[in-house]
Amino acid sequence: QVELVESGGGLVQPGGSLRLTCTASGVNMRRYSFSTYVMMWYRQAPGKEREFVARLNSDGGSTVYADSVKGRFTASRDDAKKSIYLQMNDLQPEATAVYFCNAVPGYWGKGTLVTVSS
Predict the structure, then answer these.
(1) Which of 1, 4, 6, 85 could staple 26 via S-S, CB 3.0–4.6 A?
(2) How far apart are CA 100 and CA 109, in angstroms?
(3) What is the Cα–Cα distance from 64 to 36, expressed in whole angstroms?
């Protein structure tokens, strides 16, 4: 079992920044190294389907971004803290969504709401 908890969401004005955190725990996190998990960020805007944001490969591998966030979002991980992060800069209203983290193959957090509005 893997438990994921996201935090860091909130209300921000257009052009602002937020940093999201996702921290993992649970039995499987004691049995297997966090570094072996592929971790991902997704988001779901109101009335829309959940969409991919970023993928952080395991064991120091590369990071892949959705085209819509390239250059403005930066995903990172700290395996010692069993955490991943999403630094979001120059936020625009279309970034308003619930942001979820995912540990492949199928563990999900409950999400954190990001609202971009003036």
Answers:
(1) 1
(2) 6
(3) 17
Q: Is residue 18 within 8 Å of residue 12, measured between CB atoms?
A: yes
- Tens-digit pLDDT profile for residues 26-66: 877 677 789 999 999 999 999 999 999 999 999 878 999 99
Provide the greatest CA pair distance for the chain.
45
Q: How far apart are CA 19 and CA 73, in angstroms?
A: 9
Q: Which residues of 75-99 are buried (b: 16+ CB within 10 A; e: fewer)?
A: bebebeebbbbbebeebeeebbbbb
For residue 53, give the amino acid letter. Answer: V
Minimal CA–CA distance to 16: which of 96, 111, 88, 99?
88
Q: Give the tens place of pLDDT for each residue, 85-100.
A: 999 999 999 999 999 9
Cα separation values, 50 from 1, 58, 62, 92, 118, Å: 23, 23, 23, 18, 24
